Amino acid sequence: MTEPVSDQQPLSRQKEAEFKVLRRFVEVYCRKHHGAARGEMCADCAELLAYGLARLVKCPYDPKPSCKNCPVHCYRPDMRRRMREVMRFSGRYMIKHGRLDWVVRYFSRPSKPRR
Ligand SMILES: [Zn+2]
Questions:
Q1: Ligand 1 centroid – CA 43 distance (Å)
Q2: Is pLDDT above 70 for 79?
Q3: I want to staple 30 with a disulfide (CB 3.0 to 4.6 A). Which of 6, 16, 41, 48 is the partner?
Q4: Domain ranges, residue 83
Q5: Ligand 1 centroid to 25 CA: how many Å?
Q6: What is d(CA 62, CA 56) in angstroms, rounded to the nearest whole number?
Q7: What backbone torsions phi and psi does residue 107 show, to the nearest 5 degrees?
Q8: In angstroms, what is the span from residue 62 Cα to ligand 1's centroid?
Q9: C-alpha 15 to ligand 1 mean position (Å)
Q10: Separation of CA 112 and ligand 1 centre (Å)
Q11: How many domains is the chain built from?
Q12: 48, part of any domain
């Protein structure tokens, strides 16, 4: 498994957990859109994930709020758009494939179910 995260400072447990979910989402998206093999991703998606990780590392909040509820919105607009697309696609994909646990882990806040 390639680890894009080698020279980073250690993340808090919560951020590390969040990064794992993030990586999972990007992997699914890349596999379905760019034909990446399991556990791999294309350069674009790797860039997006690395960007997400950098934001996570820099996030001043500990514990970190759900990005949706965060007042800072630290993502660059284009990256934000791409990440939102990934989240939307992979979120649906995981629900369809019974991996609701991953979705819940990422959007862990009380909200009424929507479709
Ligand atoms: Zn990709």
A1: 7
A2: yes
A3: 41
A4: 13-106
A5: 11
A6: 11
A7: -100, 55
A8: 30
A9: 23
A10: 31
A11: 1
A12: yes
Residue 40 burial class via C-beta count within 10 angstroms: exposed 0-12, middle 13-18, buried 19 and up: middle
Higher pLDDT, residue 108 or 64: 64
Report residue 40 CA to chain centroid gap. Answer: 15
Query: Is 80 exceeded by the pLDDT of residue 35?
Result: yes
Share of the chain above pLDDT 70, in %: 83
SS3 category, 61: coil
Separation of CA 7 and ligand 1 centre (Å): 23
Q: Angle at the Cα of 98 (from 93 to 103), degrees rounded to 5?
A: 65
Position 17 in a domain:
yes
Distance 33 CA to ligand 1 centre (A): 6
Q: Chain-centre distance of CA 21, in angstroms?
A: 5
What is the rounded average pLDDT for all residues in the chain? 83
pLDDT above 60 for 48: yes
In a domain, 101, yes or no: yes
